[in-house]
Design brief:
Blueprint: H1 5-10, H2 15-30, H3 34-38, H4 40-47, H5 49-62, H6 69-97, H7 115-123, H8 127-137, H9 140-144, H10 146-149, H11 156-162, H12 172-191, H13 193-200, H14 203-215, H15 221-251, H16 257-261, H17 272-279, H18 284-316, H19 322-328
Helix pairs in contact: 2-14, 2-18, 5-8, 5-12, 5-13, 5-14, 6-7, 6-15, 7-11, 7-18, 8-14, 12-13, 15-18, 17-18
Transmembrane segments: 12-31, 37-59, 80-99, 105-122, 143-164, 170-191, 198-218, 224-248, 260-280, 286-308
Keywords: Cell membrane, Membrane, Sugar transport, Symport, Transmembrane, Transmembrane helix, Transport
Pfam family, one: KdgT
Amino acid sequence: MQIPIKRAIEKVPGGMMVVPLLAGALIATFFPGTPKYFGSFTGALFSGALTILAVFYVCMGASIDIKATPYIVKKGGTLLIVKVATAMVLGLIFGRVLGFAEAPVTAGMFAGLSTLAIVASMNDTNGGLYMALMGQYGRPRDVGAYTIMSLESGPFLTMITLGVAGLSAFPVQTLVGAILPLAVGMLIGNLDREMREFLSKAIPVMIPFFAFALGAGLDLSKVWQAGLLGLGMGVAVVVFTGIPLFFADRLIGGNGVAGVAAASTAGNAAAVPAIVAAANPAYAEAAAPATILVAACVVVTAILVPIATAWTAKIVGREVEPAEEAAATPAEVPASSAPAAGH
């Protein structure tokens, strides 16, 4: 007896990402002690998102042709600039035009909302989510674009956006650590085509495992604590960053899928409000509610972005590498070698 599990999962938009992610989030929310209770390999599966991502990154790197490096810089640089610029514009509107530069809204349905919360949630893309989605709906070099986008990580660009640049050291070693697995994979894949083929096969297999581990780090109760405001902010991140990112990606020759895949909030963004407040006490009042709101955005965007990306890929189609395109197109038969009629 065969049960069509794979087919059922794939019927869900972004199913290989969304279904395992939701499974992990549900267990983390209602049975948070599961990893510690079982320990061993089971516990490692719940907490191994970074490890799985590191292997995923090496395999993706191996599948990237070194000739694609200019493309990676162009794609990653464009998405980085548009994402940060969008956060900056929204921060300026909320902070200067509406007058909430540092303190949060204190009353009404928007109580707790602050410029800090808006910028922190909009600035930083969930890199693991982006790479997993691009592994499924994009090209290997689209995954590599995150090496440039990783500059968003941490409080540095948030501080620049808020006008407090210089209060945080630029984490060079962290950036090198983020790029190194991809670089090693690219080196191996470009030195040996057989290794490229071997490692590339592991890419789709790792997506559901990474998604589960990512989901295991999401507490759905954060959405409940933040209420409708947190839910609305999560939707706003997808809409207000996703639309300009979609068109920016198309403007540089992409199909827009990578832009939508980047319209999320990174998990480490939830730590940014506290770091910013520690660096500048003027944001101390806004830090606590901002942390809850940003955490809600992490959960909401982790669920919505895979669905939006799958829907976008279905509408615009999936980009393929030139080699794939050539293989899919039947070779034309030269007229001189065509058989004569009747033979």
